[in-house]
Design brief:
It contains 15 helices and seven strands. The chain has 361 residues and is mainly α. The N terminus is likely disordered.
Length: 361
Amino acid sequence: MEGTAYGLVASSATRWIIADRPLRPGRHHREPGSERGDSALPTPRLLDAVRAALRIRHYSRRTEQTYVRWVRRFVIFHGKRHPRELGEREITAFLSDLAVRRNVSASTQNQALSALLFLYRHVLEMELEEVTGIVRAKRPVRVPLVLTHREAREILQNLEGTPRLVCGLLYGAGLRLMECLRLRIKDVDVSRNEITVRDGKGRKDRRTLLPVSLKADLQRQITFARQQHEADIRAGRGSVEIPFALERKYPRAPWEVGWQWVFPATRWYREPLTGRERRHHLHETVVQRAMRDAVRRLSVTKPASCHTLRHSFATHLLEHGYDIRTIQELLGHRDVTTTMIYTHVLNRGGLGVRSPLDEDR
């Protein structure tokens, strides 16, 4: 859940302060009402307007948090001046500072640019010609990190409990970590060996396989989630967050078993708008820490993460002869060119070329 919303409040000097979140006093910091005439001015909140524009367009919550953070950093970088007073030169200066002084990657720099372009186009409604001339950083072409089948097996065997089942689904079904943690009971069809991913990356649904070797463990996890849900209902809780305005259409849906998380959190939280006590899904850091510890214990030299298991899923399917279109559908890629990056596994030994040094072997 997101913390207290913070916004930018205008002052008569057209500088801005961060509202609802205290900042350390500095040379750019001004308290509300510290300048003459502040009390008579409206108090627009720029970051709230950014959030509203993102939600109208149904951007994901993580994109919303990321864009708001970049807009906030941009305003603070330029002395809390209103973005309407800023243009191409200031945007370029901010992006250059990220690349030169902070040494961020090209993808991070492009992410910041996307947030600022969204701010000017959809929030401030300023289609500046100068902004369209800004060049995006060129991202390097990299091959994905892939584990061997043996390495993946050993890592899974060194995991325990829920993290082991989650990582098993990442490797066995090609799920992203958050797609797995956001699974609901209704999305798992054990009889058909099928998992339905709802609202995945790009807000797309898809179906993928359920590994037969994980059926028993997944059924036990679902049974545990149902029992925990029943206990929560007896304790006066038991509701869960459901997407968009479905609760108005189906008022009892938040309490139905099918909508409950397959991997519920161990603790509940109080939803600020309704005051209900709910459970969120398991936090991703629980699985990430377990994966990192397992890799360290095995002394695997590759910097493997949870997403490495998804890369390994696609790579090993290609090695076993499955066609790339099928893998594209299982991974949920919009374009087959994204899936083509995994064809590096077919280029054994430098595009399949046999080295002359090995001729006599």
